[in-house]
Amino acid sequence: MVLRWFGLVCILVGWTACSSTPVKSALHPSKKPSGSSINYVGLKIPPMPSKHETEMGYLLEPEGLGKYAIEVVNYGSKKIVWMGRLLYNDAKGKAHWKIIATLPPRPLPEGYQFSSGNCLSHGKPQPEIVAIVKTEDKYRLTQIEKAWKANPEKEAFEELPLQGIHCINERWNRL
C-alpha cells in the first residue's frame, strides 16, 4: 500500500514538474535570443560599447537638474540616440555618464539625418529637441520625419508633434 502511494506521488510530482511553467533561476538566467538589441538604459560610459561610435553629442544643463548629454551613436548601419546623466569627472577630468533614456536603434531613410541641439519650435531655440530631418542644401530644414524632446526630469524622450519645428542646417553653405 505504501509503495502504491509512493508511486502515485512520484507520478503526480513528475506530471506537475513537466506541465508547470519553469521558474527562472539566478543560477541559470534565460539567454536573450540572438540578434536582440542591447539594453542601453543603465549602461555606464566609459567604456563605449564595442562597435559603437559617437557621431555627435552636446550638453544640456537644465536649471537645477545637473548635466546631461545627448549623443547620436553609430552602430553598424543603425543610429542610436541616447541621453546620459553626468555621474562624475574622474581625477583626469574625464566625464563618466549613465545612460538614462534611448530612442530605439534604427536605420535612417535615405537622405535623412538626425539633427539635435539646433532645432527650434515655433521660432524658439529648443536644444532638447532631437529630430529626423531631410538633408537639404538650405539653411532651415523643415522636412521633419519625427521629433522628440529629451526630458531629463522624466528620464525619457517624448515624441513631439511636427508642426512648428525646424532645424538649422549647420552644414549649409560650408566649403
Question: What are its keywords?
Answer:
mainly beta; 44% strand; 175 residues; 1 helix; single chain; disordered N terminus; 5-stranded antiparallel beta sheet; 4-stranded antiparallel beta sheet
Return the structural class: mainly beta
Q: What does the average pLDDT come to?
A: 81
How many angstroms does the end-to-end distance come to?
95 Å
Order of helices and strands: HEEEEEEEEEEEEE
Rg calc: 24 Å
Give the overall shape.
Answer: globular
The portion of residues forming beta strands comes to: 35-45%
Number of separate helices: 1
Question: Low-confidence runs (pLDDT<50, min 5 residues)?
Answer: 1-36
The share of residues in helices is 10-25%
The major sheet is characterized as: 5 strands, antiparallel
How many structural domains can be distinguished in the coordinates? 1
What is the count of β-strands? 13
Strand ordering within the main sheet = 1-5-4-3-2
